[in-house]
Amino acid sequence: TWKDYARRVLTVGTYPQALTVYLEEFVAAGDFLVYKFPVWNWEKGDGTKVREFLPADKQYLVTRGVPCLRRATSLAYTDADEDAERLLSFTENPGAAAGDNDEWVETHAGRKASKSAGDASAIDEIPDIDGAGDEDGLIDGIRGMSVGGGVTNGEGGSKEPDIIDIDEIPDMEEDDLEEADDAAAAPKTKPVAPPAVSKSDPSPPKPTNTNLLQVRTYDVMITYDKYYQTPRVWLIGYDENGTPLTPTQIFEDISADHAHKTVTIEPFIHSTSLQAASVHPCKHASVMKKVIERMNNSVVAEQLAQRKGSGVASPSTLSPKDTTKKKWGFGRKASGTGKEVQGPAEDEEVEGMRVDFYLVVFLKFIASIVPTIEVDSTTSF
Amino acid sequence: MPLVQFAPLSSLVQPVLWHKLTDLKIDVLKLSDAAVPLTGSYTIGRTIKDRETGQDIALPCNLTVGAESFESDFKAPHGSVTAPGMLRNFNTIEEFKAVDKTALFNEEAQLIWDHILKTRDTAQLNRFFVITFADLKKYKYYYWFAFPAFVAKPAWEIGDDGWKRAHAELGIEQLTFIHSHLRNSASPYFLVGKDTFGKVKAGPVEDYSSFFSSTGPEDQLIGFVDPSADPANPGWPLRNLLAYLRALYPSSTSSIKILRWRDTEAPSPNAQWKSQIGTLTIATTTEAISEANTRPTAVGWEKNPQGKLGPRMADLAPMMDPSRLAAQAV
What we know:
The complex is a heterodimer. By secondary structure, chain A is α+β, with helices and mostly antiparallel strands. Chain A folds into two domains: about 1-115 and about 215-285 and about 360-380, no CATH class; about 140-200, no CATH class. Helices cover about 25% and strands about 10% of the residues of chain A. Chain A is built from twelve helices and eight strands. In chain A, the strands form two sheets. Chain A has a six-stranded antiparallel β-sheet with strand order 1-2-5-6-8-7. In chain A, strands 3-4 form a two-stranded antiparallel sheet. In chain A, strand 7 (about 265) and strand 8 form a beta hairpin. The longest helix of chain A has 27 residues, at about 285-310. Chain B is an alpha+beta fold. Chain B has two domains: about 10-150 and about 300-330, Cytidine Deaminase, domain 2; about 155-290, Ubiquitin-like modifier-activating enzyme ATG7 C-terminal domain (Cytidine Deaminase, domain 2, 3-Layer(aba) Sandwich), CATH 3.40.140.100. Chain B is about 30% helix and about 30% strand. Chain B has helices at about 15-30, 95-100, 100-120, 165-185, 210, 235-250, 285-290, 315-320, 320-330, and strands at about 10-15, 35-45, 45-50, 55-60, 60-65, 80-90, 130-135, 140-150, 155-160, 165, 190-195, 200-205, 220-225, 255-260, 275-280, 300, 310-315. In chain B, the strands form four sheets. In chain B, strands 9, 10, 11, 12, 13, 14 and 15 form a seven-stranded mixed β-sheet that branches. In chain B, strands 2, 6, 7, 8, 16 and 17 form a six-stranded mixed β-sheet that branches. In chain B, strands 1-5 form a two-stranded parallel ribbon. The longest helix of chain B is centred in the middle third of the chain and has 19 residues, at about 100-120. The mean pLDDT of chain B is about 90.
């Protein structure tokens, strides 16, 4: 179980160039993620694409329906935002020459969108899928389609071929039922479409709460990349109506510094045919090393400070709060098994960050690439 | 008193399902348009806090079908409940358009109704179906979901105080108990009551007639896993549960307490339980009770993005068409 690996510390110094993750560490970190954040699940993937070095039922991690409230491109850049963009160079001393590979642009560190961009209704401008330029006629054909149109209501599809004109056709056996249903079916959202729709709507019963917004969602997968020995992230997007996003649309949700550069559309390795957007892992190891190194320093420093303090007070008086207050919450207390680990045996070495936190940190790093996709569900951590 | 309104389910088809359908069509179904079993799943409705406005945003109630939906041993992922369904794929767009949808819908509604009266199996209450046409050459998939739900006549009403926070009424201990009960059962519907010692207990809705024998009316709770995160409107799956109770136990269900279960995880110490409780009532007559076995009308075709009753289309060409993928690759 992950507990067995939990004792291993991410020994940053071991790997001179970068921080790679062993397979078993990936599985342990994945188990921890699934345990701690149940929105994540292990999946087995396509039967023909099983990668034998991973457990059959733990081929990759997935979380579905991750909301994406607004476009990364809508996060407006102003001069004031310049501070928000910072190079994560991770050198203690800014003067020290950082290797040119050691930097990673974190955009929108402050997460401030312009006012107009902040209005989630900006999302409404996504074009309808069958809006324009479909020449094959199928769409036109399908527009005339209706439920029982030919049976109960002859004028069903033929009246106005350009509009899906079936709103007046009941979706059940009798005409008067539509009304009955309207009363009991909650209006789904504020109409996304032009106001004309709401006008023609004979004042539907209003829900008392109108904050139901339509948002894009993403399925996020994490696989293990054997070549780079790091986790690798894949994205499949859906628009507000649940239809798959095109690559162009997906790139709207990726920070401009990374779209088309480190993020590309590639065959998903656990499927025979699926394509997904993926963040290329070639820099992951070195960036993760920097991130974890920096965090480790603060964690270790804090642990040391705590130890010093606890020289006066006995270790057992360390309240759980003290340990969870650490930056990023990387205290043992946060692991869910904290009680067992923390007990009287407080005399362990200062431990730094544990290996099973790897993916939690990794998600924070990924969140900088896809700033509007709420992939980092770990903030409650 | 306000009418109870239900938040409809919306379909979410993972692209991988279309890949699977393509394989199925080419290798197995070929020209057959017979019904194929398909299993979907839904989760407790999620809300998300918009970090910029601080507003809570409810995510849509999705019924998801994906890679394993065609598999007979489909198991919903942790935290989800399954919904049985079927898929009919038509060979041509003309057949897809011409199929008698009213008849198809009635057949499926009848199936649910038969289950209510005969098997009393609540796992069949959230049945759904989808008709599809796959334009394999253009990587376009036309589909139309239906989530049949029986219409209550007269409609259900809710007390003027509406849906209340469950923790105020039940207390943390009871909620924690229900939470751990649901962890071990993947059922979308459940009962909560008290045993002879006054301790809280939970069980399947199938046991309705005996389950509440030692529970006072004020402690009788009927719960369901609620895919709706909208605090004002319970999710669609409640409708058929209500129909089920009215059909089988018409004399004792004119006023019932419903628990909308909305807590995937026990909340952290600072957060509140999201589950809600409401008392639903229905005007009832002796006539209605004697007619309890007649099938009510059903509704539930999914509306398309334009808000009309019509099919949807997934265009996977950008993600599947080799020529477009090649053009896009650098």
